[in-house]
Amino acid sequence: MRIRFESVICFFALLTCASSLFAKTHPLDVALEGPWIYLEDAQFDDGSGHTKPVLVVMAPNSTGHNLPIFSTGRGFQILPSGHVYCLGDTTTCAPGTPSQSKLVSGNYPDLRFVKVKTMPGWKWYQSITQDSWILILPMPDSASNNGVDHITLEPGFAAPAVPNGTSETIGSIGMYLHYADWDTSKLTLFRCADHKVDRCDNPQAAGAPQDNYGTLSISMTVVPETDTTYYPSRCEYHVRAAYHAMILFLDSTPLNSGRNRNQSQGYIAIHRNRIPPAPLCRWQRVTPRPMRRNCLGRSSLISGRSTPRTKKV
Q1: DSSP-derived secondary structure for 59-119
Q2: Beta carbons of 78 and 86 less than 8 angstroms apart
Q3: pLDDT, tens digit, for every residue of 154-201?
Q4: What is the separation of C-alpha 16 from the centre of its chain, rounded to a whole number of angstroms?
Q5: Among 27, 73, 141, 295, which residue's Cβ finds the most Cβ atoms within 10 Å?
């Protein structure tokens, strides 16, 4: 009986160890900060003849912002611009089978995006410019706001914004992507081949793979003002410059023409209870015409959705 009992104990211990081994996961949060445009592509070709949903984030180079950084602690700048990049494991772009087909907040509060339109026939993989970045990310299990702010969106300069007015709303200024289980302990940013950016076949690593310690930061931070009394630092000019660049990335029709696809929300206006003295904000130029003398709030992120496209063969 002694031998049999010890055998049972050993067998149980082995099962426990094996169960623990297979249950090990690598959860990951991706913190996105900066003037990113978010787009859901439900038919991304993974290069094996199958399609799956992915999240595409795009950012034009904007006045007052640093170059984007990819880092879990000792990362690197995403260079050069004008290319498509993809978050992957050690070998594959956007690995795994997503549990969601679109962005969902799950148990988190609702996502506070500004919904925008694209031009008819617009494709994200045909929209890269030499002064912008496009990143392909696996569709997360859930997402949450990485900060919010009070904003008012307007079609033009016709009427001044009213603090705490009825048109003021809450907008996201960043986002967290939550992945319950990342495939490996490594995070690699791949640069996609220029002639196959929509599929990202045979990608090349853009920098040293990062260890997954739980959070990855993909950020475009603001260049700090050395003189905080100077009016751009008081009025957050980088917000307006970034917002307009994002709108014009989707439709290059000048906002002062009144015919932009997103004209109804082409201008981001004043933040609640943040009205410094008007002379600090006089005649700031972020478009071909001068801005009015109001100061504006922090940028809202823009969310779009891709149009269906035929599967590539």
Answers
A1: EE--TTBPPPEEESSS-EE--SSSEEEEEESSS-BS-S--S-SS---TTSPPP-PEE----
A2: no
A3: 888 655 555 555 678 889 989 999 999 987 889 999 998 876 777 787
A4: 41
A5: 295
The ranges assigned to domains in the chain are: 25-305
Of how many residues is the chain composed?
313
SS3 call for 141? coil
Residues 6+ apart with CB under 8 A from 224: none
Rounded CA separation 155/258 (Å): 8
- For residue 140, the one-letter residue type is P
Task: Give Cα separations from 68 to 35, 36, 59, 220 (angstroms).
Answer: 10, 10, 9, 4
Rounded Cα–Cα distance for residues 68 and 79 (Å)? 8
Nearby residues of 218 by Cβ (< 8 Å), 6 or more positions away: 30, 31, 32, 33, 57, 68, 69, 70, 135
Structure tokens at 217: 């930061």
Sheet of 148-154: strand order equals 169-172, 148-154, 267-269
- CA dist 279 → 104, 133, 268 (Å): 43, 36, 20
pTM of the model: 0.79
pLDDT digits (tens, 9 = 90+) for 116-149: 999 998 889 888 888 899 999 999 999 999 999 8
Q: How far apart are CA 259 and CA 44, in angstroms?
A: 31
